[in-house]
Inverse folding.
């Protein structure tokens, strides 16, 4: 099957573009652990805080989360002390609580609470906002959110002052006791929501899963349906953190919290429920069918025993580009402990997975593809002794004259322009099915793009070593 990729960036997070691997394989790259980014230590926050969302707007970074100082046991009813809180940052590393003066709490408005549910706690447990890039969205609805159970639609002009959009909930077929996320999909021209689901795996056994619904107006939604995962497992996927990947928005990413209900950490207090969890990574190209190419954990609980207790390692909804080559992801730690907090992790741009080959070397060939661009750039990394070589072939696998295998390419770059004996200009091949053939030695190839000139998203020289 010919893959039409145009000039968009393609990531090697699945085998959609791969025809054949020989001595190479797809490799998952977990985030690098960084600092504790935020501690839930305000009086209105506490050990039940979580369901974090991060987004960028107007040159700064924004964080929303549930403040819940006294979480109730499961099944004890709705909480009466949940609040939607807000923090901001200029760099994604240091976060501050602004005093917003919106909600009065214990006789004071000196707090960072943006939503208290209008006296009925509507949506304070699982408020999940996003910045709406829909060009038809009114200015006073630039920010939107789903919250509650059933789910209500909320909106805001500035992300600080919120209001309910409609006089009734927009999604009513539960369950909804999770961080249910929504976003505008510019590629497909619709709103998409992912929410808590359930699937039967036996006569008397069910697992938590993820459901999907779509809407054209953020009010009328399709009946939620369970997503399909390949391969199928009997694992509990508790949250989802689904989002289009900013640099390749035709690909959805999701970072579910994988829940193992029958296990208990070695130092788990008896006051906490059984169950341990980690973070996983999966992708989709249509929003309904999801590839779980990597069944291993994307984020492990790690050395700290407080992460081996009930419902930890919940990846935040959203990711931030915190410098020209780095993405920051965030997740909850120490849930239900007095030290509840948010951890930051970092990744290279596009660096979630790669085609990898070790010291002995390997190769892979793409499916036939049709591109539209002026040159080819790759996101790659090698060791000092490693290399990548690139060849353009016809659909039969014969090297095209002038675009035979390059000299060894080594180094580390987010965007390296490829030079053949015919030069870097590939416009003569645009619109015609071709294959790319790569040979690798101790190297990772994260992404490729047939780029139009002047389209680099990086500052400075994109061909820098």
């Amino acid at each position: 099957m010919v893959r039409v990729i145009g000039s968009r960036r393609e990531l090697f997070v699945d085998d959609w573009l791969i025809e054949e691997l020989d001595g190479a394989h797809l490799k998952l790259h977990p985030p690098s652990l960084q600092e504790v980014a935020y501690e839930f230590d305000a009086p209105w926050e506490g050990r039940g805080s979580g369901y974090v969302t991060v987004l960028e707007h107007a040159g700064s970074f924004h964080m929303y989360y549930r403040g819940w100082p006294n979480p109730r046991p499961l099944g004890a009813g709705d909480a009466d002390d949940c609040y939607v809180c807000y923090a901001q940052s200029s760099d994604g590393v240091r976060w501050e609580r602004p005093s917003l003066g919106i909600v009065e709490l214990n006789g004071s408005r000196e707090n960072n609470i943006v939503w208290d549910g209008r006296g009925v706690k509507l949506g304070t447990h699982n408020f999940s906002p996003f910045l709406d890039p829909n060009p038809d969205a009114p200015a006073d609805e630039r920010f939107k959110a789903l919250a509650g159970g059933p789910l209500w639609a909320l909106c805001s002009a500035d992300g600080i002052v919120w209001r309910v959009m409609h006089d009734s909930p927009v999604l009513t077929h539960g369950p909804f006791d999770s961080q249910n996320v929504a976003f505008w999909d510019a590629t497909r021209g619709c709103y998409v929501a992912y929410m808590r689901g359930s699937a039967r795996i036996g006569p008397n056994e069910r697992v938590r899963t993820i459901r999907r619904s779509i809407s054209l107006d953020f009010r009328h939604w399709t009946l939620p349906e369970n997503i399909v995962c390949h391969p199928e497992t009997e694992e509990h996927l508790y949250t989802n953190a689904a989002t289009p990947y900013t640099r390749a928005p035709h690909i959805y990413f999701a970072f579910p919290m994988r829940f193992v209900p029958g296990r208990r950490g070695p130092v788990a207090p008896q006051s906490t429920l059984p169950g341990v969890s980690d973070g996983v990574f999966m992708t989709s190209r249509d929003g309904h069918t999801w590839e779980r190419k990597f069944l291993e954990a994307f984020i492990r609980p790690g050395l700290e025993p407080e992460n081996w207790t009930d419902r930890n390692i919940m990846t935040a909804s959203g990711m931030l580009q915190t410098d020209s080559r780095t993405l920051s992801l965030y997740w909850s730690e120490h849930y239900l402990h007095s030290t509840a907090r948010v951890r930051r992790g970092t990744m290279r741009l596009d660096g979630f997975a790669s085609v990898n080959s070790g010291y002995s070397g390997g190769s892979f060939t793409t499916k036939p593809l049709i591109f539209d661009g002026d040159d080819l750039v790759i996101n790659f990394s090698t060791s000092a002794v490693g290399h990548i070589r690139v060849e353009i072939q016809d659909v039969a696998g014969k090297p095209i004259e002038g675009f035979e295998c390059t000299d060894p390419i080594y180094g580390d770059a987010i965007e390296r322009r490829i030079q053949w004996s015919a030069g870097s200009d590939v416009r003569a091949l645009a619109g015609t099915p071709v294959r790319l053939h790569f040979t690798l030695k101790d190297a990772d190839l994260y992404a490729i793009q047939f780029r139009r000139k002047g389209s680099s998203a990086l500052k400075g020289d994109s061909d820098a070593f």
